[in-house]
Amino acid sequence: MKILIPPSEGKARTKDTKTIFSSTNFRFERNVNQVVRLLELIDDEDLRSVYGTSPEKASRFHRQNQDIFNSPCAPAIERYTGVVYEHINWLSLSEKAKKYMEKHVIIFSGLFGMLTPLTPIPDYKLKMNVLSLQHHWNPILTEALQNEKSIIDLLPQVHRKAYQPNKKNVTPVDFLIINKGKKTAAGHFGKAVKGEFIRYMSENNVTSVDQFNGFEYDGFKWDGSSFIKEES
Asked: How far is it, in rounded angstroms, from Cα 170 to Cα 221?
C-alpha cells in the first residue's frame, strides 16, 4: 500500500552539509534535470508569475532551484513545515510509525516528482501547477505507481493531475465540510485533520480502508468515502 500526500509550501532551512543533492543518486535525477533546464528558459519578467512572489524573492528562489544539485540536503519529512507536517509531528512518532511512513508514504513534488519521507532534498520552491509540471510528471509517476496493489490518495486536486490513477486500486480520500446541507472541500481547515490522519495510520499500522473508521478528529468522521464534518 502507498499513501500519496502533498508537500508543503513552507520549508525549513535545515541542512546536512555532508550530503549534496548530486551525490544522492536520486531515482528521478534525469527528470529533475529536465525541470531545471526548463527553468533556465524562463525570462526575468515571467519569474514573478512562476513563483508568486515579489521580483526580488522570485529571483532568489529561481537561483536556488537552478542550483539544487550543488545544494545541501535534509530529509523531506524534516524539510517540509506546513500544517499537514506540523500535525504529523515526525519527531514525536514511534520508531515503528516512522518505519511505516518510510515504507508506505509518498510525497508528490513539483520539482522532484515523488519522495519518501527520508529522501534527502535541498531547500527549494516550485509548485506543481506551474510550467505544466503536472504534465511533465504524469507519465513518469503513473509508471512508477502502476504495480502498486493499493493506493490511498490524500492529494489535493492540483497534485492528482500529476499521475493517472487506476480506479481499481486507487482510493481517493477527501476532507469535506457540510454546512446547511451543502458539501464543500475543507481546504486549509482540512490540512490539520489530514496530518492527524497520516499520523493515525502510521501509529496504528493501517493497511486497509476498513480501518479508517477508527479515526476521528475535530468533528471529521469517515462516512465510507470521505472524512466529513457537519457544521450547524
From this structure: 20
In this structure, the strands spanning 113-115 and 105-109 are: antiparallel
180: confidence class by pLDDT, cuts 50, 70, 90? confident
CA dihedral 91, 199, 147, 118 (to 10 degrees): -10
The dihedral formed by the CA atoms of 42, 43, 49 and 51, expressed in degrees to the nearest 10: 60
218 burial level (CB within 10 Å; 0-12, 13-18, 19+):
exposed
Q: How far is CA 160 from the centre of its chain?
A: 10
Q: What are phi and psi of 23, to 5 degrees?
A: -95, 0
* Residue carrying the nine cell digits 481546504: 187
d(CA 125, CA 221): 33
* Rounded CA separation 197/87 (Å): 9
What's the pLDDT at 189? Answer: 85
Bridge partners of residue 105, in order along the sequence: 3
Tell me the chain's radius of gyration from C-alpha atoms.
18
pTM, 2 dp: 0.95
